[in-house]
Amino acid sequence: MRPGEGGGDTRRTAAGQAMVELQANASAAGGAMVVGLSPLSETLWRDSKALPGAGASALIGDVSARLTWKDLSVTVALGPGKTQTVLDELTGYAEPGSLTALMGPSGSGKSTLLDALAGRLAANAFQTGAVLLNGRKAKLSFGAAAYVTQDDNLIGTLTVRETIGYSALLRLPDKMPREDKRALVEGTIIEMGLQDCADTVIGNWHLRGVSGGEKRRVSIALELLMRPRLLFLDEPTSGLDSSSAFFVTQTLRGLARDGRTVIASIHQPSSEVFELFDMLFLLSGGKTVYFGQASQACEFFAQAGFPCPPLRNPSDHFLRCVNSDFDKVKATLKGSMKARKGTVLDSGGSQASFLMQAYTLTKRSFINMSRDFGYYWLRLLIYILVTVCIGTIYLDVGTKYTSILARGACAAFVFGFVTFMSIGGFPSFVEEMKVFQRERLNGHYGVAAFVISNTLSATPFLILICFLSGTICYFMVRLHPGFEHYIFFVLNLYASVTVVESLMMVIASVIPNFLMGIIIGAGIQGIFMLVSGYFRLPQDIPKPFWRYPMQYISFHYWALQGQCQNDLQGLVFDNQYPDQPKIPGDFILKYIFQINVERSKWIDLSVIFSMIFIYRILFFLMIKVNEDVMPWVRGHIARKRIQKKDSGPTFGKTPSLRGYVVDPELGPNES
Ligand SMILES: Nc1ncnc2c1ncn2[C@@H]1O[C@H](COP(=O)(O)OP(=O)(O)OP(=O)(O)O)[C@@H](O)[C@H]1O
């Protein structure tokens, strides 16, 4: 039995079994029914733009996707006046029910061709030529076509079933009954052969989960939920051992046999994997080397004088040989390009409402955090440990003369270093950010739902962490006695930790890279700490830049100002010498710590809460800017570069295929 399988969830197992039977019945009936769905869902299923055609039969016929591309060229802008032709006048097609392999040496343009066909080229890349869907020019978008990237961006703490289940809730229409969504999830699990690991977690750095091949299949399953008619996969077998690669490709072949059009870029498949492909598009230096039946490629190469030696893997052989018989391919294709005009594929993003998205994202994020040892449990432990250390060092700090500095240092450490530890949540934010980008819950609502869910899901954990560690610290150090002072201390701690989290999320939205994000986050916080008023007194901090505006945008400054007031105001301290009068806290605040006692500590706290709000808005805006504005800016810059290049000298032209001499044993050499 696999970990997590348990055997307790008999209902699910029964549902799975039912789906197998239903699928078998459906196949027996020629695939004429949409398996396991109620009449309402069946109608929704057929009517919905996002769910075009489920099951084998629905895909074949008027909703099938026939993709053709003609004289497709892609040029990328590399720098001022520098461009590169990555794809050079490629022509080809992909039929419904077929599995097409895009093959070629590294850098030959496989991923670029896949991106161009899927309509997701980088902003600095420009495409000419036509990509036709069922004989018409159409923008391929989410829902009509699915794209599985090389990276499996999944949440490591969720099981396979949960991962697919949440994705279904996030994207399928609210009107579809839950049981039908569940049936669809179970059907997809079966379709992708994931039954055995359905209750196993995906896995992450500290959690052993499903295998690499199973992860790939989960990524494909997530895209299949929307029943796309066209499926693009970028190197679906990369990083897999030969048996996993075979199984993944076999699954893709099964999906193609259900009437889908499946196109996958693949580097160097084994002969068994290669045999599973129907069509082969072989590229070299951005040009077509071979396009046709994969099974006839060996013969084609043999006729051209490059027979595949016995026992050699055909794909190895093809990659070594380069054939320039492009005209023949073009002629073969001429007829197929005149295919009758068919249905325009509808596009559509998530069909779930804003509330459903916000609710599902919050629940999923909450479950993820509660299972994520690093984000929550380890952090809780370290917070408690550190606050016990603080409590021991400043134990019963008292009101002696030396306690004045001790109280200030204690506050600076708690609101500087302890809140700084919130940076530990960054890997979790990056993971969620990447999953969000894969899910493409586009539009203002999708982004708003993501931002809200992030805030809501983290709140209970942060409250608990701050309540526990704040209470330990407050009572061990014996800070200013009184309920109001205790509550202020805990709230100030909560606000400070949350504001750091919010800042880190803004950083994650711009730089979704663990190491870089943590270094940048640590740097920003270090600077904020420096101007907090503890390391240099507030009025001594140089005015331009450091005081205005840096000090005022540093949340450490507001947290420390508030806490010092909370801790010292109303207390009386011993003087340096016993014969001198006692020193009131207000005097210390005003003349030693240079704190404005006229301003209420609650105002300081409100400023931090406002900062949390501002950071969340900034988080929303950054995602929108990244989604909507940045591609436009990059595209504009690249266009300018290409225009400059066109009027200047030529650089970086891809070498012509005709410039190659082919040695059947050694492969191509440039002459
Ligand atoms: N947006 C881009 N900007 C700059 N160069 C690009 C861009 N897209 C592709 N290229 C260049 O085009 C060439 C082909 O890249 P592509 O990723 O399509 O190749 P590939 O065949 O998929 O390679 P691999 O098998 O190594 O992934 C490479 O030299 C790459 O650097």
Automatic annotation (TrEMBL):
<keyword id="KW-0813">Transport</keyword>
<dbReference type="InterPro" id="IPR017871">
    <property type="entry name" value="ABC_transporter-like_CS"/>
</dbReference>
<keyword id="KW-1133">Transmembrane helix</keyword>
<comment type="similarity">
    <text>Belongs to the ABC transporter superfamily. ABCG family. Eye pigment precursor importer (TC 3.A.1.204) subfamily.</text>
</comment>
<dbReference type="Pfam" id="PF00005">
    <property type="entry name" value="ABC_tran"/>
</dbReference>
<feature type="transmembrane region" description="Helical">
    <location>
        <begin position="446"/>
        <end position="474"/>
    </location>
</feature>
<keyword id="KW-0067">ATP-binding</keyword>
<dbReference type="GO" id="GO:0140359">
    <property type="term" value="F:ABC-type transporter activity"/>
</dbReference>
<dbReference type="InterPro" id="IPR003439">
    <property type="entry name" value="ABC_transporter-like_ATP-bd"/>
</dbReference>
<dbReference type="GO" id="GO:0016887">
    <property type="term" value="F:ATP hydrolysis activity"/>
</dbReference>
<keyword id="KW-0597">Phosphoprotein</keyword>
<feature type="transmembrane region" description="Helical">
    <location>
        <begin position="376"/>
        <end position="397"/>
    </location>
</feature>
<feature type="domain" description="ABC transporter">
    <location>
        <begin position="67"/>
        <end position="310"/>
    </location>
</feature>
<feature type="transmembrane region" description="Helical">
    <location>
        <begin position="514"/>
        <end position="537"/>
    </location>
</feature>
<dbReference type="InterPro" id="IPR052215">
    <property type="entry name" value="Plant_ABCG"/>
</dbReference>
<dbReference type="Pfam" id="PF01061">
    <property type="entry name" value="ABC2_membrane"/>
</dbReference>
<feature type="transmembrane region" description="Helical">
    <location>
        <begin position="404"/>
        <end position="426"/>
    </location>
</feature>
<keyword id="KW-0812">Transmembrane</keyword>
<feature type="transmembrane region" description="Helical">
    <location>
        <begin position="602"/>
        <end position="623"/>
    </location>
</feature>
<dbReference type="Pfam" id="PF19055">
    <property type="entry name" value="ABC2_membrane_7"/>
</dbReference>
<protein>
    <recommendedName>
        <fullName>ABC transporter domain-containing protein</fullName>
    </recommendedName>
</protein>
<dbReference type="InterPro" id="IPR043926">
    <property type="entry name" value="ABCG_dom"/>
</dbReference>
<dbReference type="GO" id="GO:0005524">
    <property type="term" value="F:ATP binding"/>
</dbReference>
<dbReference type="GO" id="GO:0016020">
    <property type="term" value="C:membrane"/>
</dbReference>
<keyword id="KW-0472">Membrane</keyword>
<dbReference type="InterPro" id="IPR003593">
    <property type="entry name" value="AAA+_ATPase"/>
</dbReference>
<dbReference type="InterPro" id="IPR027417">
    <property type="entry name" value="P-loop_NTPase"/>
</dbReference>
<dbReference type="InterPro" id="IPR013525">
    <property type="entry name" value="ABC2_TM"/>
</dbReference>
<keyword id="KW-0547">Nucleotide-binding</keyword>
<dbReference type="GO" id="GO:0009651">
    <property type="term" value="P:response to salt stress"/>
</dbReference>
<feature type="transmembrane region" description="Helical">
    <location>
        <begin position="486"/>
        <end position="508"/>
    </location>
</feature>
